[in-house]
Amino acid sequence: MTRLLLASVAFVAAFAILVTSAPQVFGCAFSVSPTTYEPPISRSAHLTGLEMAGYNMIAPSNVFFGIPNVETGLRGERAFDEDPYVPPTLLKAIGYIESGIRQSQSGTFGGVEAVLESFDCGYGIMQITSGMTSPLDDGWPSLQQALVATHYLYDIGRGAAILVEKWNGAPEVRPIAGTDSVSHPRIVENWYFATWSYNGFTGPFAAIRSNHPASPSYAWPRSGFSCGALDDGYGHSYGDYPYQELVFGCAARPPSVSGEQLWDPLALSLPDTEDPLWGEPLSLETWTACTSGDSELACANWDLMDMPSPAPAHFDPVERPSDEAAEGAHGDPVLSVSHTSVDELATTVTITNIGQGILAWRADHEQEWFAIDKQAGVALGSDVICTLGVPCERDATLRITIAPNLAPTDGSFGWVNIISLTTGQLWQVGVTPPPVTAEPTNTPRPTFTPTAVPTPPPAVIVGDVNCNRTANSVDATLILQFGAGLISALLCPEGGDVNLDGRINVLDATLILQFEGGLIDRLPPP
Question: How far apart are CA 283 and CA 215, in angstroms?
């Protein structure tokens, strides 16, 4: 009994530094940095992913990771282009400016380590900040946040989607580039304002950084920026250029790895500010006339900054990747976990990918009397390349720690949900409190039969599609992923038809969110 009490004290002390049911977060989505896989240093996998994103091949029907159709046309004549598209070379240059095209913290290429995370909650290759500054799923990182941080493809996909959102901000809240070409997205120079906006559509009144090309903080005239060799005759200091000039210069003068340029140079043109066609829209007087120093950039006359395509204009020659290349990048991950239940004060479970490719996972739980030490990570299939001498653990581990003095004594138990983020496969690890006394007893201990395979429970809980006996935003997200084709099945589809119309779709997801938010009293609704 004494030994048990001493152990209890030790575990309670350690418990404070682990992740409880509502993890303590200081400003970002994750209180513990997730692990991610960084493909080899050649960047061939990264570059394929950036090309896939340009042609909407990462998650084409997903509203978060797929790119929307791009608007074209002049003011009052905007229409959606038929095919979603972003110039892949532009995405490559943005990825290099943001992170050096790396997903992990220290760039351990061909290995597994913590995700690259900036001081302002920017994650991964594309330094995704929007939507990443706080956990969005009842104190846990959402499934989308976990995918951004753990899987380089989805980080890229989200970055491309954000860039299109910036493009589509015109004409309501952004100027139009390409007034001579109906602002066609295939002309790379027409992405000038969208690229500017990716880092912040800021000017001389910005608190941190101005991206206005006429800001007095930037010398004029100035040579172009380069991501190439330091002795190539161009500028290499990031602080000497507005963001869009960094990106355009990097596209034209790419970096090299092992003597090979990462992509074919694309000599993009910047606006000629000596010519009134571009000089007037990009003057500080025009900026001031529109913004009047308003930090929120509220403006009713963005048309003052509309301008023709910088000349000469260029098309991106990068072709659409093959379907086979896209399938290889996605892989076919299959989740497996070493335990179906635990009943010790501390247990380490192993998360394995018995399929192919990268398995991105998230873990969560609702009980307060035990904790887990990670929220998300990756497990690698046998086909994933690990660089010799680089830390590259194919399996992930998750430590479950029980606080005995908090554990229930009424025979109840808990569980840890581990979900494969791209397939929706769910594994539950049952957590049973250890005995409260070391004395022998004939009373049988409570047991838990976990959901380790897709076996629906005997009773249907309306709105519960992941078999955890409750309906919440996780279920709504899974229904949306199912409807978008991102996952192929639901563990408990019987609970998905919330409005009882014989279908499982966005209406059912909306009702679940309304129920969780207290807007309706029960499911199904009256």
Answer: 9
Residue 444 sits in a domain whose CATH number is 2.60.40.10
Residue 3, pLDDT > 50, answer no
Structure tokens at 169: 């901000």
Tens-place pLDDT, residues 385-405: 999 999 999 999 999 999 999
Closest to 361 (Cα-Cα) out of 155, 146, 154, 156: 146
**Residue 474's CATH number:** 1.10.1330.10
Residue 312 domain flag: no
For the record, the structure tokens of 397 come out as: 């581990």
Q: How many structural domains comprise the chain?
A: 3
Would residue 319 count as lying in a domain? no
Residue 4 falls within a domain, yes or no? yes
Q: Given the structure tokens 């910088």, which residue do they identify?
A: 310
- Specify whether the CB–CB gap between 419 and 425 falls below 8 A: yes
Q: For residue 396, report the phi and psi dihedrals to the nearest 5 degrees.
A: -105, 155
Alpha carbons 80 and 86: distance in angstroms, whole number: 14
DSSP secondary structure, 218-258, as one string: S-SS-PPB-SS-TTSSSB--GGGS-HHHHHHHHHHS--EET
Q: Of 429, 453, 477, which marks where a domain is finished?
A: 453
Secondary structure class of 283 (helix, strand, coil): coil
Residue 91 sits in the same domain as residue 119: yes
| Structural domain span for residue 364 | 1-23+331-453
The tokens 């799923």 sit on which residue? 137
Last residue of a domain, one of 399, 430, 453: 453
pTM of the shown model: 0.81
**CB burial of residue 499 (10 Å; 0-12, 13-18, 19+):** middle
Q: How do beta strands 370-372 and 335-337 pair?
A: unpaired
In angstroms, rounded to a whole number, what is the distance separating the alpha carbons of residues 23 and 375? 9
DSSP H helices in 253-389: 276-279, 284-291, 323-330
Classify strands 370-372 and 396-402 as parallel, antiparallel or unpaired: antiparallel
d(CA 30, CA 127): 15
In a shared domain, residues 15 and 119 = no
User: What is the Cα–Cα distance from 35 to 362, expressed in whole angstroms?
Assistant: 11
Looking at the fold, whether 494 and 381 belong to one and the same domain comes out as: no
Same domain, 368 and 280: no
- Residues 315-344: what's their mean pLDDT? 97
Report yes or no: 505 and 483 within 8 Å, Cβ to Cβ: yes
**Does one domain contain both 268 and 342?**
no
Extract the tokens encoding 317.
């020659």
CA dihedral 157, 163, 169, 173 (to 10 degrees): 140
Q: What percent of the chain has pLDDT over 70?
A: 87
In terms of Cβ atoms closer than 10 Å to its own Cβ (0-12, 13-18, 19+), residue 79 is exposed
Please give the pLDDT value at position 297. Answer: 64
Question: Are 281 and 375 members of one domain?
Answer: no
